[in-house]
Amino acid sequence: MRRRLGDRKDGYKLRKADPFFRIIPHIMPERSDAQIFFEERIYLDKPHELIRQLRREGHKVGFLHVVLASMVRVISQKPKINRFVVGKRTYARNEISVSLAIKREMSENGEETTIKVKFDPHDTIYDVIEKLNAEVDKNKQAASENNTDRFARFFALLPQFVVSGLVGFIKWLDRHNKMPKFIIELSPFHSSFFVTDLGSLGIKPVYHHIYNFGTNTIFIAFGVRSKEQIIDEDDMSVQNRKAMDLKVVADERVVDGYYFASAIKLATRIMGDPAVLLDPPDEVVLDDEI
Q: How many other C-beta atoms can be found within 10 angstroms of the C-beta atom of residue 172?
């Protein structure tokens, strides 16, 4: 779609949105004003079955890949959750991207970096595995430094009053749709959603705030697995099932609650039975309010 007057480098202005949603950003101007919190439990029988199948095929894959591939699929069917609010205006993002922090070495002294990976709405879990693993492998090298690291290191060299002024200027550029594309590209705060895998740290998921800076609308956290005893209603037997809890924080200003709920249900259904991710979607739905 060609950019028009009022569009951003990373999104299209909503021109057919409900008037109520044009007012909401003025009532709740900051993303922290509009955070909603919810959690979902995913039973891991079928996800583990798919992961074992993919590993037999030679793929390096885990539950993180299932989460990312599921969210890419959900956005391909429910594109309105891929919106964001900046400068009290709402936009439809023109790409699917995910930000996540990774440790180059799993130790207290190991350096941490943040990566951003872009996906296509037609992507299968095979595509997600390939794209994510390539980016992670590239950034896990001890001596590697990505553009985000370099940008942060540059700021760290400056006096505090200069940093404060530059950050304020960048925020002004963002609010007025003048943010340079190279900053949007390297900023982990400008993406469809942020994901953190706390299971690798051996802890349960937390509700992680979304940032007022940038355009992230959704933050997803998951952690260590748990076991749950479930009673089979047919024969009253007790079954032990492994589960994973997801904690999600989202910006409620981008779409109504019914749409958000339907997207959440779709996401949990796909994560719970992710075999559908082996094939591309039958169709990709476009945001009809651009």
A: 12
228's enclosing H/E stretch is strand 226-231
Q: Please give the Cα distance from 8 to 131 (Å, whole number).
A: 26
Whether residue 91 contacts residue 84, with contact meaning beta carbons closer than 8 Å, is answered with yes
3-state secondary structure of 28: coil
Count CA atoms within 13 Å of residue 94 on its CB side. Answer: 15
Separation between Cα atoms, residue 72 and residue 99, nearest integer Å: 13
pLDDT in tens, 118-145: 999 999 999 999 999 999 888 776 556 6
Query: What is the pLDDT at residue 257?
Result: 86
**pTM (predicted TM-score):** 0.90
What domains, with CATH codes, occur in the chain? 11-278 (3.30.559.10)
Counting beta carbons within 10 angstroms of the beta carbon of residue 28, is it exposed (0 to 12), middle (13 to 18) or buried (19 or more)?
Answer: middle
* Partner residues linked to 10 by β-bridges: none
Distances (CA, A) of 142 to 112, 136, 139, 209, 233: 10, 12, 8, 29, 53
